[in-house]
Design brief:
Elements: H1 4-8, H2 35-42, E1 51-55, E2 61-65, H3 79-82, H4 85-93, E3 104-105, E4 108-109, H5 116-125, H6 148-151, H7 154-165, H8 169-189, H9 191-196, H10 205-213, H11 220-252, H12 257-283, H13 286-308, H14 317-339, H15 345-372, H16 377-381, H17 384-408, H18 421-445, E5 447-452, H19 461-466, E6 476-481, H20 483-501, H21 508-513, H22 516-545, H23 554-585, H24 597-628, H25 633-645, H26 676-689, H27 694-714, H28 719-724, H29 728-737, H30 742-769, H31 774-794, H32 798-817, H33 826-850, H34 856-883, H35 894-934, H36 947-971, H37 974-985, H38 989-1012, H39 1023-1035, H40 1038-1041, H41 1051-1080, H42 1086-1091
Antiparallel strand pairs: 1-2, 3-4, 5-6
Length: 1115
């Protein structure tokens, strides 16, 4: 092939096979050969770059050379020159040119560097390395030095000016928030605007305060939701204030001041605080928290400050001033949200869907490359798009649903979402199912995603030193191989070593025993890449179809996936037959080979991912058809009414299950009531037990704290001092600081203290430099708001910026209103603000920590306990389903067909119910991770919180959830009930019963230890021994020994996946047992326990008193 003329004789749709001159690797070379090169040298059948049938976009089949290479290429478009890399990424992905002779897609790309060593040399030649996962093969040339005069041009300066005014979307959001805040401040600075709110010189700062709470950096649908909550809570506050003023005037006119103040405190203030606090904890949404803060501001100023000094005058002027200021601030925020760079919620929903699809595309390439051990995988792992894809994949369980809820609020004016809500629901659910399939694919590939916040240890340090991207980041994602992955790589490495270092081996039996797994992976290598290519192209077309008409019809996309799956399954069966033939020719006992489990598992999940992708295509197609039907608002309302009036029955598996239920009915402790009186008593008991819930306790303690802090305002001895030092600010701070968890309260309290001091100091300095000067203060106020809004919108400590602006706003604007009378100094006002805020923070910390404390670390421990019980319930449900014999086995003929169809519908409903449970488990894991982030903020006298151990526990819970998803996919297939259940599963019922019982017992023991915080027993359930007995039983079944069943299509996959999933679940349970032993200790140390049963050991002479062994660093 060295002759150039040879390349012209290649087939028209082939690319040259890149073979370097040193293809015959020397065993003494320092650079080890790549996996691809070893395959090429060792495999006599086909090259790594051999052609395979590929389904193209138009549905045709052509022979193509498939490659998944993502080689390092110089950054053609740097972020500094052309803005955000993400936009460059999308631009590159939308260019789909599929030619016969040259491929520009990364899955079909001209691979010019085949080994990792060549990649390293390639990096030395280029001035930069690629951080993006480019979807196109872009030719880059080395930079040639240019003269000084060639670089000096007017165009350069013009380009810099354009970049200066070409703002990113994040900068747009910051600017629109600053504009709204500046406009809100103008109602204090400009007298004409102040006249609109009734010449309010006391509460005009509330206009700017409302713009801080209701920042316009929301979508239009999100702003509708925020405005609805804001105006609803404002109306509620006005009603409470009017009621309090009416009762106060009524009783004060009759010389009953104590009764008037008692009613204001015990009824109006306590009742409103309890309701608002309960709804804040119940809904737990940012718009509700914002509206609650504004509601408390109005209530505390009117009911506490003004009501405590009321002498019997029914004057609503103060209520009108405060309400008009808050309403004007809300109106300014809504106007800025609409006028300045409006963001549609439906557009955001499309972008979130595209981001989720992009993450699936990147992760699909990563997992395929990882499974095939591609040589450029190290470069792909440090890809910045991969980091974004992992984060988008994790957030997709909740972000898509949130975006959809906001988009639904735009149905009145947005015809893109009007009439398509049900179709969007179907697309979101399909995307969530696809995300679950991706989790199963990741689990079957044998890798784990871990977020690293500190310097890594041992085995990751070397990889970190190679990656520039990791040097400048404190938080990144680490890709770690699990047990199965390491076992597979070790087995393949041994086979590769045997092939390279023993080329002269002539013993046929020995050579047959080696290389079987390598050859199996090599056989499915190109078909797997072909399937991955079709899936990737389908994802790209779906992504394009969300914003415009797709270039390829949806029917073609579905047919392409069906063809690709069929091609892959044919190659897969041939590979399995070849592997089985290897063992038959080698006279090896025919048993399922453990080293091939992971390969079978990955292939099965890959096919399931492609099938779920077909479902997504159907959902997007239905959405596209719905968009073409333009309907009016009235028609939409009629359809919504009809849809709500039709009841829908859903199959559910967990209606009656409550984790850690303490009062199960029909027991001796809680018997079933048999009389009418007992039913009434039981109903009263159930109602009263609801007051023990966390939401009720939080609302109750917030009400108690509010009453205790407001009582001094109504006492004659302390009332004047309360009003002089503006202690209503302390009340407002108390309600803002108090969050449901102790850790969250501590974090907010720190933000509140330091940000208040900073805001007050800066406001005082600005006013002292420009006292009473309108224009400089307006400019400084606007400029100061910009970095604070950047913190609010883009930083994890956004509360710091919000509290800083609130403190600055109050000091600056209140002092400007006092510029003529000069009743107080700006320093005195700043001191008042700081002291009142500090008082509210300290009181809030005390109440949160000592009155029904809701500690994040305790709730994390109990939450993990509930999660394990729910996993056990899910496993029990799966066992119940796959052990149940289908009803159609008793029918024949046409009745059999109808019974099968009915059973198929029933299985589909069960599958959807199981997927809903898995989705709720995924969301629960996100909540547990939030609690884990708050737990270190809570002080512990026993020592630091064991964060790493709990992180490992959550990782194991995530892995078990993924394994159950794979098991659910397997056991609900028709082939399972037709072939596997009756011939393989039922004959091993006795052994299977032991496995299921031990696994369930394992879940309940671990959950009980977490809930009770007690040491574990020295001997945990022998689930692994039971699994090994089950495997032995299955291997010696006559149907397995005869190979009749396993030679059938897909049966071997179900068999292998079932065994592999069980082993992985038991391994994760063992890890959980070890972590819990480190947390809570054991009744007896393991070595002491084993010594009690040593054969020949003198137990009586060597006996020691049994002591409780417990770790001190447990919760």
């Amino acid at each position: 092939m060295s002759d150039p003329s040879d390349s012209r004789r290649l087939p028209r749709n082939a690319i040259p096979i890149p073979i370097s001159s040193d293809a015959q690797y020397n065993t003494f070379d320092t650079v080890s050969p790549s996996f691809d090169a070893l395959l090429y040298c060792s495999s006599p059948h086909a090259s790594v770059f051999s052609e395979i049938d590929v389904v193209l976009d138009d549905g045709t089949l052509q022979k193509r050379t498939v490659s998944l290479s993502t080689l390092p290429e110089g950054s053609l478009y740097s972020e500094d020159e052309y803005g955000d890399n993400e936009h460059t990424y999308y631009n590159s992905t939308e260019e789909l040119h599929i030619n016969v002779g040259h491929e520009t897609s990364p899955l079909l790309v001209k691979n010019e560097n085949t080994s990792y060593s060549s990649i390293q040399h390639h990096e030395e030649d280029l001035s930069t390395t690629s951080n993006e996962d480019s979807d196109n093969s872009i030719h880059r040339y080395s930079k040639t030095p240019r003269s000084r005069w060639s670089t000096f041009s007017i165009g350069t300066y013009t380009q810099h000016l354009k970049c200066l005014f070409n703002l990113t979307p994040k900068q747009h959001l910051v600017l629109k928030c600053s504009f709204a805040y500046c406009l809100g401040s103008l109602f204090t600075f400009i007298p004409a605007l102040n006249a609109i709110i009734g010449h309010n010189h006391v509460s005009s700062h509330l206009v700017a305060t409302a713009t801080v709470f209701f920042n316009p950096a929301k979508t239009l649908g999100g702003m509708v939701e925020a405005a609805m909550f804001g105006w609803g809570y404002t109306l509620f506050a006005v009603i409470v204030c009017l009621g309090s003023m009416f009762t106060t005037d009524f009783f004060i006119d009759r010389d009953m001041a104590i009764v008037a103040h008692s009613i204001s405190l015990a009824f109006w203030l306590a009742g409103s605080t309890f309701i608002v606090s309960f709804l804040k904890a119940h809904w737990n949404k940012p718009p509700v928290a914002t509206a609650s803060s504004l509601c408390f501001i109005i209530i505390f100023i009117i009911v506490v400050r003004e009501g405590s000094a009321n002498k019997g005058d029914f004057d609503t002027t103060r209520i009108q001033q405060i309400t008009s200021a808050v309403a004007m601030g809300t109106l300014v925020t809504v106007s800025c949200c609409i006028l300045f760079w409006p963001v549609s919620a439906s557009k955001k929903l499309r972008n979130d869907l595209k981001a989720s699809l992009m993450s699936h595309k990147v992760l699909l390439k990563l997992l395929t490359k990882t499974f095939l051990l591609d040589d450029d995988l190290p470069e792909f792992k440090k890809n910045s798009s991969l980091q974004t894809a992992i984060e988008s994949h994790r957030a997709s369980f909740t972000s898509l649903q949130k975006s959809l809820q906001e988009a639904k609020l735009e149905v009145i004016w947005n015809d893109e979402i009007r009439g398509c809500t049900q179709e969007y629901d179907a697309v979101i659910k399909s995307m969530q199912r696809l995300t679950q399939c991706m989790g199963g694919l990741r689990s079957s590939c044998g890798i784990q995603f871990e977020q690293m916040k500190h310097e890594p240890k041992s085995n990751v340090k070397k990889f970190m030193r190679k990656s520039r991207a990791y040097k400048n980041t404190k938080e990144t994602w680490n890709i770690r191989a699990d047990h199965n992955r390491r076992k597979l790589e070790d087995g393949m490495r041994k086979e590769l070593t045997h092939q390279v270092y023993s080329p002269l081996e002539t013993d046929n039996s020995t050579s047959d025993q080696h290389g079987t797994l390598i050859e199996f992976i090599h056989t499915i290598r190109q078909p797997l890449k072909s399937l991955a290519y079709t899936c990737k192209q389908t994802i790209i077309h779906i992504e394009m179809g969300l914003s415009k008409s797709p270039t390829t019809s949806y029917e073609t996309l579905k047919n392409n996936l069906v063809k690709a799956i069929a091609l892959f399954q044919i190659s897969e069966r041939q590979a399995v037959k070849r592997l089985n033939r290897h063992y038959q020719m080698s006279n090896i006992e025919y048993v399922p080979q453990k080293d091939a489990f992971l390969a079978y598992f990955f292939m099965f999940n890959m096919v399931e991912f492609a099938k779920e992708l077909i479902s997504l295509v159907e959902s997007v197609q239905a959405l596209d058809l719905a968009k073409q039907k333009k309907i009016g608002v009235f028609t939409m309302l009629i359809q919504m009414y009809k849809n709500k009036s039709v009841p829908r029955k859903k199959f559910s598996i967990n209606n009656s299950f409550i984790p850690n239920e303490r009062h199960k009915m029909d027991t001796l402790h809680t018997p079933v009531p048999k009389t009418k009186w007992r039913q009434i008593v039981l109903r009263i008991w159930r109602t009263s037990s609801y007051f023990k819930s966390q939401k009720m306790l939080y609302a109750t303690k917030a009400t108690i704290a509010c009453i205790m802090l407001a009582i001094p305002a109504f006492l004659s001895s302390t009332g004047p001092s309360f009003r002089a030092w503006r202690m209503e600010w302390a009340l407002i701070t108390l309600m803002v600081v108090m969050t449901p968890t102790v850790g969250g309260t501590n974090q907010v309290a720190i933000y509140r203290i330091f940000s208040t001091a900073l805001g007050c100091c800066i406001a005082m300095c600005f006013y002292l430099i420009f006292p009473g000067q309108m224009y400089p203060l307006i400019l400084l106020t606007w400029l100061f708001s910009i970095p604070n809004f950047w913190l609010i919108l883009n930083h994890k400590h956004g509360k710091f910026g919000q509290f800083t602006l609130l403190a600055y706003n109050l000091v600056m604007l209140n002092k400007y209103n006092d510029r003529e009378t000069d009743r107080f100094e700006v320093s005195h006002l700043a001191l008042q603000r700081c002291l009142s805020i500090f008082a509210g923070v300290i009181f809030g910390l005390f109440v949160t920590a000592y009155i029904w404390p809701y500690e994040a670390r305790v709730q994390l421990r109990k939450g993990v306990s509930d999660f394990l019980l729910r996993l056990g319930w899910l496993y029990q449900g799966l066992v119940s389903v796959y052990s149940e014999r289908p009803s159609y086995l008793n029918y024949e003929g046409e009745e059999l067909i109808l019974a099968k169809e009915k059973e198929r519908v029933k299985m589909h409903e069960r599958a959807m119910a199981f997927m809903d449970v898995e989705l709720s488990l995924q969301r629960s894991l996100l909540d547990l991770q939030t609690l884990l982030a708050q737990a270190p903020n809570e002080p512990r006298l026993k020592g630091s919180f064991p964060t790493d151990t709990y992180k490992n526990i959550l990782i194991s819970c995530q892995n078990i959830t993924d394994k159950f998803a794979s098991m659910r996919t397997v056991v609900l297939k028709d082939e399972w009930f037709d072939e596997v259940q009756g011939n393989i599963i039922i004959p091993a019922n006795e052994e299977r019963r032991e496995v299921v019982g031990n696994v369930l017992l394992y879940f309940y023991i671990l959950a009980s230890a977490l809930h009770l915080k007690t040491p574990l027993p020295p001997y945990l359930p022998p689930a692994r021994s039971a699994w090994e007995l089950l495997v032995v039983k299955l291997q010696h079944l006559p149907v397995v020994q005869s190979k009749k069943i396993l030679e059938k299509d897909h049966v071997y996959l179900f068999y292998y996946v079932y065994i592999t999933v069980l082993e992985d679940i038991i391994r994760e349970l063992d890890k959980l047992g070890g972590n819990l032993t480190m947390l809570f200790g054991a009744i007896l140390p393991e070595d002491r326990w084993n010594s009690l049963f040593d054969v020949g050991g003198d137990v009586e002479n060597n006996s020691k008193p049994i002591t409780i062994y417990q770790r001190e660093d447990a919760i």
